[in-house]
Design goal:
It is a single chain. With 330 residues, the protein is α/β, with parallel strands linked by helices. It has 3 domains: 128 residues, Rossmann fold, CATH 3.40.50; 63 residues, Orthogonal Bundle (Helicase, Ruva Protein, domain 3); 128 residues, Zinc Finger, Delta Prime, domain 3, CATH 1.20.272.10. 58% of the residues lie in helices and 9% in strands. The chain is built from 16 helices and 7 strands. It has a 5-stranded parallel sheet, sandwiched between helices. The chain has a two-stranded parallel ribbon with strand order 6-7. The longest helix has 23 residues. It is globular, with a radius of gyration of 24 Å.
Length: 330
């Protein structure tokens, strides 16, 4: 990211940039920075924007060979093309021959580092991965934003904010804006403010539901499930999030057995550090065998839905019912 900032500051651009990763907020920020630096809005002659897997590589090459019209650069912005998963052999070969007057910006959700396109861009331009940020960095980012608004936040309020909102920067940004507006007449944001304004993210609702399941509070778990359905959450997505949490529990039990500390476990499991302690509490109630049983049963129910043998809402109910009897499988 620092390299892109320096390129923009100096006005010296690579011929190709690849921006990818799961942190969509930062990825969009840097895509917009490059677009603003390379293209004057309203100039229809020197920029082209493509999106989706139907993008034609040959058309991109032909356009890249066209000199800019009364401008220093021609910008070609390509989003979610899939070129970094599929072959795109001709385009990959072209990456070494892009004219200095053309800049490609590829913005992708997912890439294969073994693909020829990835290797070609790495050799000819700049690749930036926008990975999910850890809670420490996000805390500094949020505190910096609050400082610009002449506000502060208590430690308890900040932790509850993360617990409710999660770690997606776009969501954090929107919810913090709501908090700032709600506390317009006060200097400090406190715990009741967060509780009043910030709804629980779906993933946190799923976590609470899994807690109810592992504690054999079947009625509570089913009520939470029906609440999620009322919020128009698809049953199979709920099932995916349940199994994802169980997979995390399985991984944490193994990492704890290996003697890892919470920080190392968070990194290995790909979850925020604050979620490790909570998840370990769930994991302590389950045996490896009971987790494996529920994961296997979830796959069985999902297959029954996809083959038309069972209604998806009922299938998830059955997983919840089965999982809430987990002590029988210890």
């Amino acid at each position: 990211m620092r390299t892109i900032d320096e390129d923009i500051k100096n006005g010296t651009f690579k011929t190709v940039y690849l921006l990818y990763g799961e942190e969509a907020y930062l990825k969009k920020q840097y895509k917009d920075k490059l677009r603003s630096a390379l293209w004057q809005e309203g100039d229809t002659m020197n920029a082209a924007f493509y999106q989706g897997k139907d993008t034609n590589p040959k058309e991109l090459i032909d356009l890249a060979e066209t000199m800019p019209f009364f401008a220093d650069h021609r910008l070609i912005l390509v989003e979610d093309s899939g070129f970094f998963k599929s072959g795109a052999e001709e385009l990959a070969e072209y990456m070494e021959h892009i004219p200095d007057t053309t800049t490609f910006v590829f913005c992708e959700s997912d890439v294969d580092k073994r693909s020829r396109m990835y290797k070609a861009v790495k050799n000819s331009g700049k690749i930036v991965e926008f990975a999910a940020q850890n809670q420490e960095l996000l805390t500094r980012w949020l505190l910096g934003r609050l400082k610009r608004e002449n506000k502060n936040i208590t430690k308890a309020a900040m932790q509850e904010f993360f617990d409710r909102v999660g770690t997606d920067m776009g969501t954090l940004d929107r919810e913090m804006e709501k908090l700032i507006c709600y506390c317009m007449d006060r200097d400090v944001i406190e715990l009741p403010d967060v509780e009043a304004i910030c709804p629980q993210a779906v993933t946190n609702r799923i976590f609470d539901m899994v807690s109810a399941i592992v504690e054999c509070r079947r009625k509570d778990a089913l009520e939470m499930y029906y609440d999620l359905l009322a919020l128009k959450e698809p049953p199979l997505r709920i099932l995916f999030l349940i199994t994802r949490q169980y997979n995390i529990l399985m991984q944490l039990k193994d990492l704890r057995r290996k003697g890892m500390n919470n920080s190392a476990m968070a990194k290995a499991a790909g979850i925020p550090p604050f979620a490790v302690s909570r998840s370990l509490g769930q994991a302590s109630r389950l045996s490896i065998g009971s987790i494996e049983h529920i994961l296997s049963y979830s796959v069985e129910m999902e297959e029954a839905v996809k083959t038309g043998q069972m209604n998806e809402q009922i299938a998830v109910e059955m997983v919840i019912m089965e999982a809430s009897r987990e002590r029988e499988y210890k």
